[in-house]
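<goal> How does this chain fold?
<sample>
Here is the protein in question

***
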Amino acid sequence: MDEMKSKEPNDPREVRRSRFLWGAATSAYQIEGASQEDGKGPSIWDVFCAKTGATTRGETGETACDHYHRYREDVELMKRLNLGAYRFSVSWPRVMPAGRGAVNSRGLDFYDRLVDALCAAGIEPFVTLYHWDLPQVLQDELGGWVCRDMAMIFSDYAGVVYDRLGDRVRNWCTINEPWVVVKAGYMDGVHAPGIRDEQAGYWAGHNLLRAHAYAAARYRNHRYGNGQISFALNTSYSYPASGSAADVAAAERAMMNFAGWFAQPVYDGDYPALLRERLGPLLPEFTYEDQQLLRGSMDTIALNYYTSDVVRHATGAGPMETELVSQPDVLRTAMDWPIVPEGLHRLLHWLSDHYPGLPIYITENGAAFGDRAVENGFVDDQDRISYLREHMTAMEQARSEGVDVRGYFVWSLMDNLEWAAGFDKRFGLVRCDFKTQKRTIKASGEWYAGWISRQRAAKRMRNSE
């Protein structure tokens, strides 16, 4: 890990550059497969995907990219891509099949081997404890994240992982995108566990925040707790539809209802006052103990960014009185998300202004496109290269203006199961043939490897001056 070995310069801007990490990211359910091997228990996504019509063509993560058996091959791919860091998630039901109690040593052994392989390759491991695959037993017995007990249960699971991996892992995310867990899983029902209940959604969000706080406190009190811990915040940047005071205020309300919903409590201990005012009893109350644990419970901002939107004021349109404005002239990805790299630039400043003192890691950024492979599996994905280049340029502009960004992770290392959308939506730097499991680095992967190589060469030159 050459970023960690270079001499620490005196200029704070140089410190930020010397610590910058270029990486890629994945999650357990989307790539591992081996869904019933070596003692793994069922997750809510195993059960959800088995429901008729829940996913495109009924596709599941039963095999996915077979990373569980092919992780050494995948680490070699990471080396070829020149990655300095790799963000992956631990499967809770693989480690603790019932969610609590007995630990499955074979499941933990897999992540032990993976971390060892990454360290041997000089790749910094970034570990996410929860990327949506809750043990099904906890959903059946407790109702999942609506249960207050989940905070301590999650903390106990986190402690098991810290014990095994904490001697080598210094960068942790507790929970990936709690907003998506709540909105897609508990309000809209399009993700596992498939619930449609607004009040249940706010309770789930509340307990996800509490779970993060308890797990973060446990890490800081752990014998290996000398690294960094956060959670992965997903949000867009909301542009006002006009310069009117009403639209500008509406855009800020949209930002607080998206980013602020989860970032504000872990920064200062409670929901934004705006949300308390407009959502009223929908938002549960934190206890004094909760607030003490929440306040300052993230060491960094881990940001997942894909797109931005345009918002205008709309009297009576829900508690926030906001309305999205269409962007017909903006290019879109295969997910139908508008491509707005400038939104990343503005969002980085917004986060830096609202939550000062916290370095930022862009823990996911990428795009699905209609990849077409030639006979040997190669994909000439120039559209993805353009997307990545434009977003990296926006990030670098924010850095040059003083925003403390310390890492960038492409989503995703390889094509995988895009949750309910199945295997069609390909985000990877590496193409995965899901029938043969053949991996092929795409043009974007080759481009990213070259980008990283050039960044490292430039850093060496600066350090030699």
User: Anything to note?
Assistant: Residues 245-268 form the longest helix (24 residues).
